[in-house]
Every structure is written in C-alpha cells, then in structure tokens.
Amino acid sequence: MNSQNPSSAEVEDGARANEVRGAVRSTLQLGGSLMVTYAIALGIRALMPRYLGPEAFGYFNWSEAFAATFFVATNLGLETYIRKEVPVRPEHASDFFGTTMLLRLGMTLILMVALALVLHHTGEPPEVQHLVQWFALAQSLIVVNASMAALLHSKGKVAGLSVSNVITKIVWGGGLALMAALGVGIQWLAVPMVASEAVKLVISWRLAKVHLGLKFRIDITATKKVMKACLPFFLTAAALACNGRTDMSLLGKLASKEEVGWYGGAFSIAGLTFLISPIFGWVLMPMMSRAAARSPQELSHLTRRSLEGVLAFTVPVMMAMVLGADLWVRLMCGPGFEPAALPLRVLSPIFVMAYVTMVSSIWLTMSNKEWWVTLAATMGAVVNPLLNLALIPWLYGRIGPSGGATATALSMFFTEVIVTVLFLSRMGRNSFDRRSLVMVAKTAVVCGVCVALDRFLVGSVSAWPRLGLTAGTYVAGVLVTGAIRPAELLQVVRMARQRGNAAPAEVVVTATPTA
Q: What is the pLDDT of residues 281-294, one digit of tens each?
C-alpha cells in the first residue's frame, strides 16, 4: 500500500489513536487538578469536625443535604444529555443553553421562596435556617457549573477548567479556614461555597465561549426537544440525588443531629474514594459516546476494560478503609467521632459498587437504554428511605452510639447492591468477559488473605504497622497473581508522554482488543 495515500481505515485508526491520547492527556490534566483540590478538601474535612464538634457538624451536613434535596429539580438531566450529544455535535450546545439558563433562574427564585417557608414552619434554629438558605444558593450555582463543565469536557478542552477547579477550591477552602480562625457562627459557613461557585461560573462561561463558540440565545422549540430527551436523565439524576441526600435528613429527624455528625464524618472519609469519579463524566463518557457512534463492539470493549480499571483502583482503597477505619476516624475527625468507625466500615464497600454502576450506566445510556438506568435509580430512591425508616428506629439505641448512623449506612449498602445487580444483569456479557472475571476472582482471593492476615496480627502488632503489612501483602498478591498488569499501566504512561500530538495518518499504531 502506498504510504503517501493512506486508506480510510488507516485514517480512522489514526484518528482513534489520537482520540485515546487526547483522552489520556485530559485525564492527566484533570487528575492533576483533582489531586490539588482533594488535598485542599482533605484539610477542610479534617478541620470542620474538629471546629464544630459532632452535633454542630451534624447540623452542617444536614443543612447541605436538605438544600441539595430541595434543589434536585434544577438539574433538568442536562448534564448527561450534554455528555451524550455534544461530543458528536458541539454546535448544538447553543440551541438550548440560553433557554435552560433562564428556566433554571426562574425555578431557583420559586424554590428559594418555598424553602424559606418550609424552614420557617419546621422549627429549626434561626442560624440553621440561614445556613440552609446559603447552601441552597450554592446548589443553584453548582448545577449550572456542572452543565458548563460538561460542555467543556465534551469538547475535550479541560486545561482551563483544571486551573479553574484549583482556583475555586482555594477560594472555598481558604474562606472556610478564615471563618474558622475568626470563630464565626455556623450560619455563615456556606458563604465560601457560594463565592467559589460564582467564580467558577464566570471562568467557565468565558472558556465555553472561547472553545465552543457558545452563544446565549433563546430557542424555545429546540429546548422543548432537548427537555423531552432529557426526561430519563432528569428522573435518574433526581432519584440519585434523593438517594444520597434524604438519608441524612431522615437520620436527623429519626435519631439525632449527633448521629448525623458521626455519619457525616464516616461519609466524608469514605467519600475520599471518589477521587477519580469526576473523570468518568469528564473524560470517559464523551469517549464512550464517540465509541458508541462507531460500533457497539468498541463500546463494549471499552466498558469491560474500564470496569477492570475501576476495580483495580477501588478495591485496595476499600480494603484500607475497612481495615483501618478506627485510624482514619481518629486522624480525620478527631475526638468525639470514635463511633463513626462502624458506619465507615459499612460504607466502604459501597463505593466499589458505585464506580461499577457509573461505568454500567454510561454503557446503558450510550446503548439507548437510559430508561433502564432511570428504573434502577428510581427503585433505589424508593428502597433507600424505606430501609432508613425501618432500620434507624430499630438500631438507634440498641447498639449504642452510632446505631442510627450505622442503620443509614446499611440502608445505602443494601440499596447499592440492588442497583448494581440490576445494571449488570441488563448489560449481560457486555460488562465482564473471561479476562475480567479472572481478575475479579484473583483480587477476591488476595483480599481474603489480607483480611485473614489482619485478624491474625490483631493484638500482636500495633495498628499502623499492621495496616502497612496488609497493604504490602495486597500489592504483592495482585502483582504475583497477575490481577494487576504493570505492562498495561506502562502503556498508558507511554501514551500520555506523547502529549496528544497527532500521529501522521500513515503511521498507525493500534492495540488489538483482547476478549
């Protein structure tokens, strides 16, 4: 074949290789900003429980959860729609953006008034009412910024957004640290979040105009079509938001705000396992959208390998959380939060399943089975509060401090099991092949060995050295058994070092998919 006249297949393969390099580069850029922002968040997570104590920290978490639940409707399902459609037709963004912004503004005004009326009649302390209202304002900005970020991710323009994430996180973290140093009341602790989200909105709007040519125009006809297509995404987002927020609201009413504080402390620590979760929407979803446009086989292959990567990352983190729960609570939350260790152990496995459902939901969405995602998420939103209503009164007071928090953690655990099973059953063989199932089996064996070793060392080896020994055993085990393949990690590093430079179409380097 004449190298000066590459075939269409070679050109397509070259473009696909460049797409993968671009995705890796975007992942590293966003991952770098996430490392910085998570370092700031880690400091704040350690500061707030110590500054507020269990009860006030419970009020703080309850207020944020209540405001977020109240503003679920403003999501509109737009973020998922953007990540599905805009990667393949960027110009479409201007068709609906202006109208949806005005729609969200109107909804925000109505909800703020309704929220004030509800808070007035619930009898919550005035400072808590003010805190909820500040969180509500922040939430209205968060949903808009999520859509702005989705537009930039869909275009693959993330460098400016990465810098924006760092700047706004500094504004938030620095503001909270300053307020703690000044000893301000709890009612003002959401103001830094409002300020940081406002700064992010200004930066994101500028980036979207530059990279997408985004225009603010009103097109009601086009927006109606978009809203109709967004319906399953909206219902899914609403169900997921309620599933993750109503539990704290119920816990605060059925038990105590102190239980919310212990649960919030455990959830904050377990939430650190979500370090890479934004990458799924920022990079993986647009990439899978383009893969689905090419062929179902490519989409399934990418999904299986993504699930392998998810398990490789989340399982060891889960093991560290479960085996070192007492250590992490003492380190992150300080005195008064010791009862949070038990709910932390219950919560830790949830995040492995949550990552699996993230990848699964993307496959279902790209396979035009988004209503299945909605059905599973809605079922979870119904099951979770019912479990909370049953378990919180039963366990609260029966097992001592953290009984209510543990009940809430168990409710989330059982709910996540149900949703994960539903997703994977619908995917069938598109989720795991022989290679990934062997990887899961090997990892499970290594985890069992690590748990047995930890139990054997209890009483003879102190906590930190014991955790270090089990961590070393895990790393050695997954490498020796081949559950983790270093050669594939090196391949990703080599790809990243190319910095996303376009390869000539006639020089095509591709990897043959393995079953």
A: 666 777 787 788 88
